[in-house]
Design a protein that fits this description.
The chain is of the alpha/beta class. Helix content is 35%, strand content 15%. It has ten helices and ten strands. The strands form four sheets. It has a three-stranded parallel sheet with strand order 1-2-3. The chain has a three-stranded antiparallel sheet with strand order 4-5-8. Strands 6-7 form a two-stranded antiparallel sheet. Helix 1 links the parallel strand 1 and strand 2 (37-42).
Length: 290
């Protein structure tokens, strides 16, 4: 059997913080214990906020942690054509449709919420005629592409399952409920893909067999399982770890200004100190990056 493949996939839209360090080191720990490979993927589909300087700083932080990765490193911004092809495959089957609604209009029309707490799309554009949609697109009207959840589920009859693994290597299976996401966005107005479509495509393209990421993405896995089934892609096994919280009980986040690793380094914290603080007492062997 081929060795398992893990990936750490940050976005260079800010400096890495302790939460990122924990997730990266946990991925490395799993890869070592399972004699697998750990890949680095740069999730930079947001070309406005993701900047080369931040990517370089991120690579520097990871090297400081003692993590090495095989080259070349995959950058999502170099694969927009691949995501467009995946979207086209769904479009040809009538499983996606253009949506011209603004965020303000969606918020005003919807009381329900998706698992992330955002307004659940009420389906305003779902039944637009192809002719009307084509006219609006030709006129240059901004639009996203949404998954028609009812048609997508009909195209994948029967239950979808998520297979998870724990720290001891034991496996569990649960039912996926992608319907909770409603008609999710698969390509944004300003970006020709979405996180959901890009990550599902890339995990398959890179042969990822085990996904280790934060618990805040557990619900997203249900939507990912549906996309994998629709696109005929393999399903990795998943482990969603606990999140590191700040003093107020909120998860660490770039948007909240959580202290970056660079600031810790400037205060004299060593990589060994940080690994011990996060529960990782040994430096990852360099030869595991093969």
């Amino acid at each position: 059997m081929s060795p398992p493949v893990f990936r750490f996939a940050p976005s260079p839209n800010g400096r890495l913080h302790l939460g990122h360090a924990y997730s990266a080191l946990l991925n490395a720990d799993f890869a070592d214990r399972m004699q697998g490979r750990l890949l680095l993927r740069i999730e930079d589909i947001d070309t406005t906020r993701c900047r080369p300087a931040l990517m370089a700083a991120m690579r520097d932080d990871l090297a400081w942690l003692g993590l090495a990765f095989p080259e070349p490193v995959r950058r999502q911004s170099a694969h927009f054509a691949d995501y467009a092809a995946a979207l086209d495959a769904l479009r040809e089957r009538g499983l996606v449709y253009p949506c011209f609604c603004t965020r303000k209009a969606i918020a005003a029309a919807s009381r329900a919420r998706d698992p992330d707490g955002a307004p659940l799309y009420p389906g305003t554009c779902r039944d637009l005629s192809p002719a009307e949609a084509a006219v609006r697109i030709a006129a240059g009207e901004p639009h996203a592409w949404r998954l028609a959840m009812d048609r997508a589920r009909a195209a994948c009859p029967g239950p979808l399952t998520v297979e998870s693994f724990d720290a001891a290597g034991a496996f569990t299976t649960r039912l996926a409920e992608p319907e909770r996401w409603g008609d999710a966005v698969l390509a944004r107005k300003d970006v020709p893909t979405s996180y959901h479509l890009a990550v599902v495509h890339d995990d398959a393209a890179q042969g990822v067999t085990h996904v280790v990421r934060g618990r805040d993405l557990d619900a997203a896995t249900d939507l990912h399982r549906l996309l994998q089934a629709l696109l005929g892609l393999p399903a990795p096994r998943y482990h969603h770890h606990a999140l590191l919280l700040d003093e107020g009980g909120d998860k660490l986040a770039k948007s909240r200004g959580s202290e970056p690793l660079a600031a810790l380094r400037a205060r004299g914290v060593t990589a060994a100190d940080l690994r011990a603080r996060l529960g990782f007492h040994a430096e990852r062997p360099a030869n595991r990056s093969r």
